[in-house]
Write a structure and sequence with these properties.
Organism: Actinomadura rugatobispora
Protein name: Response regulator
Strand order of the largest sheet: 2-1-3-6-7-8
CATH architecture of the largest domain: 3-Layer(aba) Sandwich
Distance between the termini: 44 Å
CATH superfamily of the largest domain: Response regulator
CATH topology of the largest domain: Rossmann fold
Keywords: DNA-binding, Phosphoprotein
InterPro entries: CheY-like_superfamily (IPR011006), EvgA-like (IPR051015), NreC/VraR/RcsB-like_REC (IPR058245), Sig_transdc_resp-reg_C-effctor (IPR016032), Sig_transdc_resp-reg_receiver (IPR001789), Tscrpt_reg_LuxR_C (IPR000792)
Helix content: 40-55%
Strand content: 5-15%
Number of strands: 8
Radius of gyration: 18 Å
Pfam families: GerE, Response_reg
Length: 230
Amino acid sequence: MSGAVALPPPSSSMRVVICDDHAVFADSLSLVLADAGHVVVGVAYSPEALLPVLRGRRADVCLIDLRFPSGTVLEWIPRLRASSPATRFVVLTGFLERHVLEAGLAAGVRGFAHKGQQAEEVLEVLRRVAHGEVVVDRAALDGGPADRPRSQAQKVARFLTPREREVLTRLARGESTQALAKAMGVTRSTARSHVQSVLSKLGVHSQREAVIEAARHGLVSVETGEWLAG
C-alpha cells in the first residue's frame, strides 16, 4: 500500500453500510455495530437499493451478503465500487468457494467474512479492511468455525426444548408473536411464554437480542431460519 491514502487510527469508529436481503439479520448487525461504537450510515436489502445509499452517504466499509435471490453480488461489485470509490467492500458468506474468492478479489472485494462467526470476529475483519488490509476469514473458506470451542450460547442451546428451538428459528425469520402462535397452533399467550423462555435461557431481554445471539453463535441459519446447532 502506498502512503497516498490517509487511514484512520485503529481506535476510530468506522462508517459502515450493510446490505443483506435478510432484513432481521441486517438490522441486527446494524445494532451490533452501533453498540460497538461505529456509525451505520445505511442499511439496504438488495444491491439495487444499495447503489443510491453509497452515492449519497460516505462509508468506509460496506458489509454485503454474497447471495441474493437474483444471484451473487459479484456481478454488482464493479458498479457498487464505481458509485463509491473510497468504500471498501467485505462480503459475508456461509461458505466461500475458491473460484468465488478469486473472482471477488479480482473484482475488488477487500474482505470475506463468515456469517457464523461471532460479531467481534466480523468486526475485526471490517476494522482490518478499513485500515487497508485484504482479509479472507479462514472460517469462510473452511465452511465455518466447527473446530472452535462451543460458545456459551451453543451450550445453552442444548437445553432448549424442540418448541423453543422452533420459536428461535421463527424469530430469526422475522415472524411476530401472533404469526408464531398461528403457525405453531397455540394461543398467543402460550407463544409469548415460549418466547420468554427462549430469552431467559439465552440471557437476553428482547426478541431482537435473541436473533443477534443466534446469528453470532451459529445456532440458526440467518438465510433460511434452519436450526444448525445440532
